[in-house]
């Protein structure tokens, strides 16, 4: 009843027990909500690390093979109940990135053993599977039980496009990086509460943009505080079918 996208560093190895397995993206039934799972807990997640250590204290575990999937982000698409015209509306909650990271001097947590090869070519295998099915021992599909982070998470929203009268379509300024109109095209900016005192200029900065440039060819541009994996997983969510959002 859900769709899983398995993300790996190589195109022919999608086993969760492999050290090429990076993480996964799971959708709900309607394709309106996605959860991003990483194999590595963040460096600030002492509770997660202690639980992992206690569970596998008698076993040798490769630092690149995690026993659990850690929920690091949630991507939601707003339901289009009235079938009104317009682009998709996205809302991303980055559970492992504090909103303070976009302030001057702010930092974002990083995994203790990051997968950071010189050239990251990520391929995807889309598979349908039963979320209740059993998994192999030592690698669970269920998210690890963790305490909420001691910060307000960074929230991203899609930048509102403008209606172009001559072209009769919704437009965003991709500065030449996107050349083909598509419902999948988007730009994400920070959605910040006024109490955080984030400048208007900082809130207008595009943190992630994704768009079409040809038949089955897309570009992805991202910046701090997102990682390549986080940005890729968010973009991947746009490919799943969303009958309730179109």
From TrEMBL:
<dbReference type="InterPro" id="IPR018066">
    <property type="entry name" value="Tubby_C_CS"/>
</dbReference>
<feature type="region of interest" description="Disordered">
    <location>
        <begin position="103"/>
        <end position="150"/>
    </location>
</feature>
<dbReference type="InterPro" id="IPR000007">
    <property type="entry name" value="Tubby_C"/>
</dbReference>
<dbReference type="InterPro" id="IPR025659">
    <property type="entry name" value="Tubby-like_C"/>
</dbReference>
<feature type="compositionally biased region" description="Low complexity">
    <location>
        <begin position="133"/>
        <end position="142"/>
    </location>
</feature>
<feature type="domain" description="Tubby C-terminal">
    <location>
        <begin position="2"/>
        <end position="241"/>
    </location>
</feature>
<comment type="similarity">
    <text>Belongs to the TUB family.</text>
</comment>
<dbReference type="Pfam" id="PF01167">
    <property type="entry name" value="Tub"/>
</dbReference>
<protein>
    <recommendedName>
        <fullName>Tubby-like F-box protein</fullName>
    </recommendedName>
</protein>
């Amino acid at each position: 009843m859900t769709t899983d996208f398995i993300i790996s560093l190589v195109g022919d190895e999608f086993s969760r027990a492999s050290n090429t397995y990076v993480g996964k993206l799971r959708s709900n039934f309607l394709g309106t909500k996605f959860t991003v799972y990483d194999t590595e807990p963040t460096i600030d997640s002492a509770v997660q690390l202690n639980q992992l250590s206690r569970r596998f204290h008698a076993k040798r575990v490769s630092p690149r093979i995690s026993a659990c999937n850690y929920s690091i982000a949630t991507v939601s698409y707003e339901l289009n109940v009235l079938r009104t015209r317009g682009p998709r509306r996205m809302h991303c909650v980055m559970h492992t990135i504090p909103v303070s990271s976009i302030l001057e001097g702010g930092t974002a947590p990083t995994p203790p053993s990051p997968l950071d090869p010189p050239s990251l070519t990520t391929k995807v295998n889309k598979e349908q599977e039963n979320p209740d099915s059993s998994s192999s021992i030592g690698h669970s599909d269920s998210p690890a039980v963790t305490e909420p982070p001691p910060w307000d998470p960074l929230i991203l929203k899609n930048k509102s496009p403008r209606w172009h009268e001559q072209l009769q379509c919704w437009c965003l300024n991709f500065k030449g990086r996107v050349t083909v109109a598509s419902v999948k095209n988007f730009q994400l900016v920070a959605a910040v509460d006024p109490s955080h005192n984030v400048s208007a200029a900082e809130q207008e900065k595009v943190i992630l943009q994704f768009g079409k440039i040809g038949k089955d060819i897309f570009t992805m541009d991202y910046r701090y505080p997102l990682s390549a994996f986080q940005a890729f997983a968010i973009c991947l969510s746009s490919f799943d079918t969303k009958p309730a959002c179109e």
